TrEMBL record:
<keyword id="KW-0808">Transferase</keyword>
<dbReference type="InterPro" id="IPR003758">
    <property type="entry name" value="LpxK"/>
</dbReference>
<protein>
    <recommendedName>
        <fullName>Tetraacyldisaccharide 4'-kinase</fullName>
        <ecNumber>2.7.1.130</ecNumber>
    </recommendedName>
</protein>
<keyword id="KW-0443">Lipid metabolism</keyword>
<dbReference type="GO" id="GO:0009245">
    <property type="term" value="P:lipid A biosynthetic process"/>
</dbReference>
<dbReference type="GO" id="GO:0005524">
    <property type="term" value="F:ATP binding"/>
</dbReference>
<comment type="function">
    <text>Transfers the gamma-phosphate of ATP to the 4'-position of a tetraacyldisaccharide 1-phosphate intermediate (termed DS-1-P) to form tetraacyldisaccharide 1,4'-bis-phosphate (lipid IVA).</text>
</comment>
<dbReference type="InterPro" id="IPR027417">
    <property type="entry name" value="P-loop_NTPase"/>
</dbReference>
<dbReference type="GO" id="GO:0005886">
    <property type="term" value="C:plasma membrane"/>
</dbReference>
<keyword id="KW-0067">ATP-binding</keyword>
<keyword id="KW-0444">Lipid biosynthesis</keyword>
<dbReference type="GO" id="GO:0009244">
    <property type="term" value="P:lipopolysaccharide core region biosynthetic process"/>
</dbReference>
<keyword id="KW-0418">Kinase</keyword>
<dbReference type="Pfam" id="PF02606">
    <property type="entry name" value="LpxK"/>
</dbReference>
<keyword id="KW-0547">Nucleotide-binding</keyword>
<comment type="pathway">
    <text>Glycolipid biosynthesis; lipid IV(A) biosynthesis; lipid IV(A) from (3R)-3-hydroxytetradecanoyl-[acyl-carrier-protein] and UDP-N-acetyl-alpha-D-glucosamine: step 6/6.</text>
</comment>
<comment type="similarity">
    <text>Belongs to the LpxK family.</text>
</comment>
Length: 339
């Protein structure tokens, strides 16, 4: 299949090069930190954006996220504030809403033209720093720091560009990175991590940090209150996810000691509807419980009936630094102060 799609990958590369050539990067009036990746999904970008926002808030900074809102039905630019309690994920996109709920101190701007939207909302929010979500291939905004996420389990896919492979750019693009984060570092052996770091050094001189998912907690579907862990431990459970790296979610569930009878893996950014969920819940039995991800939870919560919501436990996780946390913090603060 990859060989068949290869001509389309050549076309993709040509169009990407043209897009970059005709896009003149423009400056915003506050520092811009981009968090992106080389591959199509599954690198842990969104959890890292959330971790970055929490770090910025902790340092008394007012961050604003600029995001496209992949898959959303709404076209009008949105400003999500104070946790976006009344926003429907269909209008905002799943990841922007999750980010807003996870860090209510931060504002999230959702728009196709992120530069224009930043200017439009500027006087309403007065940001200290912008976080450009999924920004490594976004050429229209100049940034002060490019953070790139690489999944240790599948760093470069089959080495081919979309659609023959999962790469959005060749690894040589890492020369633009200012900081590289190897995510899911606990899913491969130490030898493989060293090999990956050595491979990255061929393309970039940027510092490298390693993270894994920890701080695992089960929350109710509102993401605010804790779920009764004993109910999961003593009942039949199934798991459902629509994320880029479902295997990582499966392993996180296993870490908590829960043995699921079924794992339902859907495509990334899966759109849920009430009928679909009712069918899934009915097939599992009335006494069963479901475990899902935070990203899926914001969508499921919008369409599921109140009775079945009580059967949903959300496994929340946060990036933990295996090493390189000091590099992460110092690099971010240095780039902001330098601006």
């Amino acid at each position: 299949m990859a060989k068949i799609l290869y001509p389309f990958s050549i076309a993709y590369r040509a169009l990407s090069a043209l897009d970059r050539k005709v896009s003149a990067p423009r400056c915003l009036d506050a520092p811009v930190i981009s968090v992106g990746n080389l591959t199509w999904g599954g690198t842990g970008k969104t959890p890292l954006v959330i971790e970055l926002l929490k770090f910025l808030v902790k340092n008394n900074l007012k961050p604003v996220v600029l995001t496209r809102g992949y898959g959303r039905s709404g076209k009008i630019p949105l400003l999500l504030k104070n946790g976006a309690p009344k926003v429907n994920p269909a209008n905002s996109g799943d990841e922007p809403l999750l980010i807003a709920k996870s860090v209510p101190e931060a504002c999230v701007i959702v728009a196709a033209d992120r530069y224009a939207a930043a200017l439009s909302f500027r006087n309403k929010i007065n940001p200290d720093v912008y976080v450009l979500d999924d920004g490594f291939q976004h050429w229209k905004i100049k940034r002060d720091l490019d953070i790139v996420c690489i999944n240790a389990s599948n760093p470069f896919g089959n080495g081919m560009l979309i659609p023959a492979g999962s790469l959005r750019e060749k690894p040589s693009a890492l020369k633009r990175a200012g900081l590289i984060i190897i995510t899911n570092s606990d899913t491969v052996c130490a030898k493989r991590l060293l090999e990956l770091k050595k491979e990255i050094s061929k393309y970039s001189k940027a510092p490298v940090a390693f993270t894994y998912y920890g701080g695992l907690q089960y929350k109710k579907i509102d993401l605010k209150t804790n779920f009764n862990f004993k109910l999961l431990k003593n009942s039949k459970t199934a798991a459902i996810s629509g994320i880029g790296f479902s295997e990582g979610f499966r392993k996180s569930v296993e870490k908590t000691g829960i043995v699921c009878e079924k794992f339902i893996s859907l495509k990334d950014h899966k759109k849920y509807d009430k009928k679909m969920l009712e069918k899934i819940f009915a097939s599992a039995g009335k006494e069963s419980y479901f475990i899902t991800t935070s990203k899926d939870a914001v969508k499921i919560n919008a369409v599921l009936d109140e009775k079945n919501k009580k059967r949903v436990a959300v496994l929340t996780a946060a990036p933990q630094f295996k090493n390189g946390k000091e590099i992460w913090e110092k690099t971010i603060l240095r780039k902001i102060k330098k601006r």
